[in-house]
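The pair is quoted verbatim as follows:
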Amino acid sequence: MKQGSVICGLAILSVLAASPASADMSKAFGNTIVSHYPNGQWVRHYFEPDGRYTSQFSDGRRVAARWSAEGDKICLSGFSPRQILPRFCSRMVEADVGDTWRARDPLGRSIRNELVAGRR
């Protein structure tokens, strides 16, 4: 495994953490996680040190939530506007800026995630 931070593999959330036991979100702060769909759509994910999460979809929709580290997972809850799932958790995956990884979104659809430098 890489020595980088850990990333969740989700479309509606993808987060960094140093190990399954404790979250070190520093590589996510100020950067963007982009989830790419095979049909060309995308979701941009933004994480803040105080637990806030926001996302922007390629169709213009925006979602806000709270993130938390729970064991070897990162979870989102308190979605605004309300989502199909009131809470969603995903396993952590190691990555650094520039890395990509395959995952599934909350509906089980295949996505390719990418950690990009800066806010896009």
User: Anything to note?
Assistant: Residues 1 and 73 are 17 Å apart (CA to CA). The beta strands are 5-8, 16-17, 32-36, 42-47, 52-57, 62-70, 73-80, 87-95, 100-104, 110-116. Residues 1-22 have pLDDT under 50 and may be disordered.
